[in-house]
Amino acid sequence: MKRTNYCGLFSERDVGKRTTACGWVETKRDMGGVIFIDLVDREGVLQIVFNPAYTSPEAFALAERVRNQSTLMVEGEMFLRDEETVNTKIDTGTVELRVTHAVLLSACGDLPFNPAEADDVREDLRLKYRYLDLRRKRLRDNIRFRHRVTSSIRRFMDDEGFIDVETPILTKSTPEGARDYLVPSRIHPGSFYALPQSPQLFKQLLMVSGFDRYYQIARCFRDEDLRADRQPEFTQLDLEMSFVEMEDVLTLLENLLRHVMLDVKGIRYADPFPRFTWAEAMDRYGSDKPDLRFDLPIVDITDLKAVSEFSVFSKVVEAGGVVRAITLPGQYDLTRSTINELTDFAISEGAGGMAWIAWRPSGEIYSILTKYIEEQNLLELLRRVGAEPGDFVLFSADKLDIVRRVTGALRLRLGDMLGLRDPDKFAFAIVTDFPMFEYNEEEDRYTAQHHPFTMPFEEDFDYLLTDPLRVRSQAYDFVLNGTELGSGSIRIHRSDIQTRVFQALGLSDQEIGERFGFIINAFKYGAPPHGGFAFGLDRLVMILAGEQSLRDVIAFPKIRDASCPMTDAPSTVDEVQLDELSICLADAIRPERDRAITKENKRRAELNIKRLAEESRLQISQKDEAGMQDSLLELISFADALHEVDTDGVEPTYSPSESHDVWLTERDDRALTAEDALANAPESRQQFFFVPPVVE
RNA sequence: GGCGCAGUAGUUCAGACGGUUAGAAUGCCAGCCUGUCAAGCUGGAGGUCGAGGGUUCGAGUCCCUUCUGCGUCGCCA
Asked: Which nucleotide's C1' atom has the smallest distance to the CA of A197?
């Protein structure tokens, strides 16, 4: 079975040639005497024509009854189309294959939905039939685009001397970070592997081993709740470099992203990627992942005279808070309801309220603030925030972290409102100097903001145990369009510093030893200074492909409850498997599992032995009835179990008897002696199987 | 776990104030049709209005409970 070419790749060069094409029936146009079929494969569409003038009667009959999404192989001659029948919408629109012979390779049954026009179909249905869903051009294009991104990355990493090394999927659970996916060990009852949240420790150990430059397109697992941009298993480009400083890693990453953007999007970036320290990003954009597709900067006005004149502001300042503003150029005429919506939104983000100024083009300042603030001070304020007549200015005053959150959220909301978040624009940003720790109120301890292997700034070493919140780390993020693409850091390569960081996180010496002993140990045998990065490949592809959900760039994604509608994973397993793993389920989830048993009980009720007995003209006692019921149920469940058995690829069995079975065409020609045949008989006499008498 | 949106034919959707037999498009089945390209025309089948309860003479529509999907917050070093 050979095709001449992909459907979508035929051209006028093939005209006049004997041609074979294979593909899926996308649409059929049956004119009665002539039938057109759009045959598609991954490369595109080809029109094939059935006409009794040149098509065999069998092939024509096939074309009449074939249904959409069936697979066909057709043979015929390629013709140039008449000028008026050319279809400019498809690449092969100037030619058509006139079919002489056709084979139905596989018929398509009733479709749950038509993949040719499935863009609006319910997502859960699409995911249940993901193989059909993936026939859609849009998804196919996404998956192929993803492949282009990964190959571009691999080419770059290769050229830069990085070595692709695989790291374990079955590994050790570590207490920091996200919830682990656990895998029970059969050989070590009660012990568990964890699936890696990232190859973090292994890549650091590869640096200790001297590989110098490592990368991997690695699957990572985190057992946390899903979002449109978050899957429980996802893919990272993971890399690590030795004998480097932060600048080296940032330069490499920037070059990588430039390379990829040019490769897959044809976009060349003239300027260096904008860089901010964490504090700058938080102050100017109210976020550690600023969306730089638009400006709308946040401006601090805490020190202005105008602020001290308005008591709502001045009280905040006296309490150590800040006052900040965002200017919307040309938006002086926002409606009252829009302003109210923005105010409600600010309040929902934690603000107490939202003051604002509409500076009319006439120069009139329209605002409640004019009642409290002298005009000259108000003008100074407007100058500070860069406003001009015709602009709208809004304010947030509160504690620093609240103002950052509120202004950051407002800025994005305003960006959406004004249509500034252009999906065709790709704005990168680099954020550095993250705080080393943050305080976790729930656990009443500090946790690492990046991860505990991040090197603090040397000048902050002394605060590690005295004032952890003051410690900055040599960590950095790459941000694209307001989404965190990934993060990295220079790592700790000295065991003494690593130990102090663990102590700052509140880990006891014993915990440190048990959980991380191997890496602290490794650093005792000569470790290079090293640093690296990991970025979310799925997210990068999603943004570049212009999709809103990771599910549209992953071939077989999970849904919101982390399950897979197609395979029904995760699923319960039988007792035998659990026993082997020394696992017993909590009482609380038993009822769920006992559904199978309920089914059994239902069957018991349906099984009317008395009636069976009457129909068989048998008289049975009550005791026999119960026994019979049990035996029958046992038989039924045995049949069920047999039904479940996967017999694909199992050797057929043979009967030694001479009798013919019309269904069983295979024959076993081995000669069988009587001894062989009776080998398992409980009792045999003179080559006969002895059967004890049943009826006296 | 909280909040929001959605659930009506295989699919995508409409369904006023609660009122006859719940509609459309598409798909499916049958018939017609030799140049279509989202082919067209004629006819037909197809519904537990997510499920359960309530109010009512009467519920797709109102009320309560519940299930499912999506989004969002918590969570995600």
From this structure: B77
The C-alpha atoms of residue A182 and residue A192 are separated, in whole angstroms, by: 6
Q: Which of residues 196-225 of A touch strand B (CB under 7 A)?
A: 197-198, 200, 222, 224-225
How long is the CA A35 to C1' B10 vector, in angstroms?
25
CA angle at residue A614 from A612 to A615, to 5 degrees?
65
Encoded tokens for A207:
């640096």
Q: What is the ipTM of this complex?
A: 0.91
- The runs of H, that is alpha helices, within A95-181 are 123-128, 130-133, 137-159
Cis, peptide link before residue A529, omega less than 30° from 0? no
Is the pTM above the cut of 0.95? Answer: no
Q: Is the CB of A426 under 7 A from strand B?
A: no
CA of A225 to C1' of B2 (A): 14
Strands (E) in A195-283, as ranges, are 213-221, 233-242, 275-277
Q: pLDDT for A460-501, tens place per residue? A: 998 988 888 889 999 999 999 999 999 999 999 988 888 889
Burial group, residue A325, by CB count within 10 angstroms (0-12, 13-18, 19+): buried
Residue nearest to nucleotide B1 (CA to C1'): A225
Nearest nt by C1' to A31 Cα: B33
How many angstroms separate the Cα of A561 from the Cα of each of A209, A231, A483, A569, A634? 40, 10, 23, 11, 36
